[in-house]
Every structure is written in structure tokens, then in C-alpha cells.
Design goal:
alpha+beta; Beta-Lactamase; Helix Hairpins; 4 domains; 5-stranded antiparallel β-sheet; 5-stranded mixed β-sheet; 14 helices; binds adenosine-5'-triphosphate; binds magnesium ion
């Protein structure tokens, strides 16, 4: 499984493909060159033989003039030819008439009698500067080969004809035989194989170096894509890859600078919000104090006005608190105060805190947390998250309904949930309500709330490594999250 995976990866690599194409074309080129070279060697051998022996027929014609004058079948002629053959047995000697027909052949070559040899080939070789090697189709099915030819007169009538000598230079050999018997072929073959191995090795090395630089580039791009913006490539050359690497480095530097500028901007924004919302608190507290004093002495219409003032101060205070908490939560460096605490105790405390609000709305607030479950979390943040959830649930539930704060052990920890029998969250809003300042249509109509409550709960969950789950229909809503047990 693993090895096939590795083979698949290698065969998909640029290096493997380049190497394969290169080796295949190198071998094809070598075979073609060898094939052409062997053919040319053969031709060269025949040409060399013919060039050396080109005057052979002229010499023999001179020697055979008198015997041939006695007649082609005369004993004198037969003996003369036999004598020549005894000196050089590879020669085949024929006398041709003017049209190229064999009229004289001796010994084992008598099968040639009556056969015809092309006069074009003969005339070609008799020219002043013949083009070599010149071939003729030899009689007795002896194939095509080089030859020597001269004009000769024969017989008592002194008929004009040709003395044709087949040189029988069988230079054609198998590769194996060449290897065994020809030192030139052997050294050419060795040199060829050495050149082949050398260029294969050099090519593979070059491709390896090239693709290694490509792989380095690819790995750097991958690291950048994975979020390592400080990644850079060492540039050592000014070729295309070098220039690409330099462009990559410039791009990575730009991205890194922009990201750090963005981060700095973000940090400043969070700090501004945190500071502003914190600075609002003191004047708001003072405002509330003055308003409460005014309320004590107010009469008539002024009571209503001061009440409205107090309500608005209350909303502003809550908004400032929510904003301050959210901006604090957003700072990742700010550590949580993780501590073990009993969830049941916290649940009852929260229930007591919300009792007046629940009674005012005629909503029953239940706590279902019988077993003593202890969790490891930031107490203050969990308190805020559960308070926000109960606040939402109470506001969404009509008189006569009920809200339940429950905790139950799970495999990984404790699941805390707030369930209500309220109006529910419309399906299209369910994915959006945890966004900052997002409020449903019902909440906007009611005019209450700032849309930060669930954003804070989601952030608290994220800081604890868990997720807020929301499920809702027309009969009510359940908001839940899990906490690690202590
Ligand atoms: N249990 C629920 N039932 C019905 N609607 C809900 C419920 N919980 C939240 N919502 C709706 O989801 C929206 C977002 O809630 P969120 O708590 O973030 O803001 P808010 O309650 O409007 O303002 P804030 O909590 O900041 O005072 C609100 O408009 C609210 O009406
Ligand atoms: Mg809310």
C-alpha cells in the first residue's frame, strides 16, 4: 500500500518524467546512430575493396588475352583461369558479350552461363571517374556486390566483350562477429557505450539539480500557503528559477508586511474599543448615581423622564460591559483563569440572579443539575456565557413558558444547555445570530438588546476549545456547549 503510494508519487514527479523521456530518446538516438554506422562501415569496406582492385580486371584481361583467343572453352583458357583462381580463390571470373550476357564461366561458376549482368553498372565503372562503390547483381544468385571490369576480345573471331571479376568482398558481418574479430568495431562500440552512459549520467544529474530547485520552490510556496509568511528561498543564480525564487521572496515579504500591518491595525482597534468601553464606565456610574438622586426627589412628569434616563444609562452600561468583555476575549495572549468549580453551584447562583426577571415575565426558571459535576474552566466567563443564554431565553419566552438550565455528564466532559419554550430563532437566522450586532427581526422590532450576547458566548466557547450548538424550532430553542470536567 505504502510502496505503491510512493511509486505513484515518484512517477508523478517532474524528475521521473523528464528522466524517462530523456533516457528513451537517448537510447533511440544511440540505436539509430549504431544502425547507420554499421551500414556505413559495410559500405566503406566494399568501397575500399573496389577502389583497391579497380584495375584487377584490366590486368587479368591482359594475361588472358591469348588463352581467350583460343576459345572460351579451350583447355588453355580453362587452365589460365584455374591458375588465377589458385592464387586468389575468392575471385569469380566471367566473360560477358557486348550485351552483358555471360558467355564464359569456368569451374564452379558455370551456372552463370547465359545469365545477364546490367551493362549500366559495367559502363558506370568503366567511366573515367566512377562513383564508388558500384554494385552489380552477380550471376548464380550470388547477390549484389562490388566488381572490377575491363574490355576484352575473345574467341577466334575476336568478339568484343567484357572480362567481369566479382570481388566477393563479403564485408557484411553480424555485430557479434564484428565484436569478436574487428578491433575498430570494438573500440567504436566501447566509445559509443561510454558516451551513452556519460550523457545519460550527466543528463540525469542535470535534471536532478533542476528539479531539486523546483521542489524547493514548491515546498516554499506550500509553506507560505500553510501560513508561514516568514518563509524565504535562498537565491544562488540569476536564471529563470532564480528569478522566480526572487519574485517569490518579494511576494512573501509583501504579504508578511501587509499581514503584520493588518495585525497591528487589529490590535489597535481592539485596544481602542477596550479602552473606550472601560473609560465609559466611570462617567456612566456617576450618571446613574445622579439620576437615582434626582429620581428620589422627582415629582409628576419628571419621574417618567428620569426613569427613561435611568433605562438608557442601564442599556449604555450593559453595551459598554459587553464591548469591553468581547475585546478582552479577542486578545489571544490574554490567558484564561482555568480553575475547577462545581457547575451546580454556579447554575443555582445564576438562577437566583435571574429569578426577579423570570417572575416579572411569569416564566418558570428551572435548574436541572442534580449530580455534582465539576468542570475546569474560567468561572467568570462561563458565568457570563450562561447569563447571556438565560437572558436571551427569558426574553424570547412568553408568560407561562419555562426556561431550563441543565448540565449532564458526557464522554469528554460536561454538556451545559439552556432550553426555552419561546418563539424560536428563524432557520435563516440560525447561522448568523452569533455574529456581532446581529439581531433577529423580532428583536429589532422589540428594540432591546445590542446583538453582542451570543457573539460573547461563541467567543467564550472558542477560548475553551469548544463550540456553541444552537437548535431551534417554533416551540423553542436549545443552546448548548461542552466543558472539560475537572
Ligand atoms: N433563545 C432564543 N430564542 C429566540 N431568539 C433568540 C434566542 N437567543 C437569541 N435570540 C435572537 O438572536 C439574536 C442575537 O442574540 P444576542 O444575544 O447576540 O443579541 P441580543 O440578545 O439581541 O443583544 P444582547 O444580548 O447583546 O443584549 C437576537 O436578536 C435574539 O432575538
Ligand atoms: Mg442576548
Amino acid at each position: 500500500m505504502n510502496s505503491t503510494h510512493a511509486v505513484g508519487r515518484i512517477s508523478r514527479s517532474l524528475y521521473a518524467r523528464l528522466a524517462l523521456v530523456y533516457l528513451v530518446s537517448l537510447i533511440a538516438l544511440s540505436l539509430a546512430t549504431a544502425w547507420i554506422a554499421v551500414g556505413q562501415f559495410d559500405q566503406l569496406g566494399r568501397e575500399w575493396l573496389q577502389r583497391n582492385q579497380i584495375d584487377l580486371a584490366t590486368h587479368l584481361a591482359r594475361q588472358l588475352r591469348e588463352p581467350l583467343a583460343e576459345g572460351l572453352d579451350s583447355a588453355v583458357a580453362r587452365n589460365a583461369v584455374a591458375r588465377i583462381k589458385s592464387i586468389n580463390p575468392v575471385l569469380s571470373i566471367y566473360v560477358l558479350d557486348g550485351s552483358g550476357r555471360v558467355v564464359g564461366a569456368w569451374g564452379g561458376h558455370r551456372c552463370a552461363l547465359g545469365q545477364r549482368i546490367s551493362t549500366d553498372a559495367i559502363r558506370g565503372l568503366l567511366e573515367k571517374m566512377p562513383m564508388l562503390p558500384a554494385y552489380a547483381d552477380l550471376p548464380c544468385d550470388a547477390g549484389r556486390n562490388v566488381f572490377s571490369v575491363a574490355r576484352v576480345d575473345y574467341g577466334p573471331q575476336q568478339a568484343h566483350g567484357y572480362l567481369f571479376v566479382a570481388l566477393e568482398g563479403n564485408t557484411h558481418m553480424s555485430m557479434a562477429r564484428m565484436w569478436q574479430t574487428s578491433s575498430i568495431s570494438r573500440s567504436v562500440l566501447i566509445a559509443g557505450i561510454a558516451a551513452l552512459l556519460l550523457s545519460a549520467g550527466a543528463g540525469l544529474l542535470l535534471f536532478a539539480l533542476l528539479t531539486r530547485r523546483f521542489s524547493r520552490l514548491t515546498r516554499a510556496v506550500q509553506r507560505l500557503a500553510d501560513g508561514d509568511h516568514s518563509t524565504r528561498i535562498a537565491v544562488r543564480s540569476d536564471d529563470e528559477i532564480g528569478r522566480t525564487a526572487r519574485a517569490f521572496n518579494d511576494m512573501a515579504a509583501t504579504i508578511e508586511a501587509q499581514i503584520s500591518a493588518l495585525r497591528e491595525n487589529d490590535r489597535q482597534r481592539r485596544e481602542l474599543v477596550a479602552n473606550l468601553s472601560h473609560d465609559f464606565r466611570t462617567p456612566l456610574t456617576a450618571l446613574r448615581g445622579y439620576a437615582q438622586k434626582l429620581r428620589e426627589n422627582a415629582t409628576g412628569q419628571a419621574v417618567e423622564q428620569v426613569d427613561a434616563l435611568l433605562a438608557n444609562v442601564g442599556r449604555l452600561t450593559r453595551l459598554a460591559e459587553q464591548l469591553s468583555l468581547l475585546s478582552r476575549l479577542e486578545i489571544p495572549e490574554r490567558a484564561l483563569h482555568i480553575e475547577p468549580f462545581p457547575l451546580a453551584e454556579l447554575s443555582y447562583d445564576i438562577a437566583i440572579k435571574f429569578r426577579p426577571q423570570a417572575e416579572a415575565r411569569d416564566v418558570e426558571l428551572r435548574v436541572d443539575c442534580s449530580t455534582p459535576l465539576s468542570v475546569a474552566a474560567d468561572l467568570e466567563l462561563v458565568d457570563r456565557a450562561l447569563s447571556n443564554l438565560i437572558d436571551n431565553a427569558l426574553r424570547a419566552t412568553d408568560p407561562g413558558g419555562h426556561v431550563t438550565l441543565a448540565a449532564a455528564a458526557t464522554a469528554g466532559g460536561v454538556r451545559v444547555s439552556v432550553t426555552d419554550t419561546g418563539i424560536g430563532i428563524p432557520a435563516e437566522d440560525l447561522g448568523l445570530v452569533t455574529q456581532r450586532f446581529y439581531r433577529t427581526r423580532a428583536a429589532r422590532k422589540r428594540g432591546s438588546g445590542s446583538g453582542l450576547g451570543l457573539a460573547i458566548v461563541a467567543e467564550v466557547c472558542a477560548r475553551h476549545g469548544t463550540r456553541l450548538e444552537l437548535a431551534s424550532d417554533a416551540h423553542g430553542t436549545t443552546a448548548a456547549f461542552e466543558l472539560p470536567s475537572a
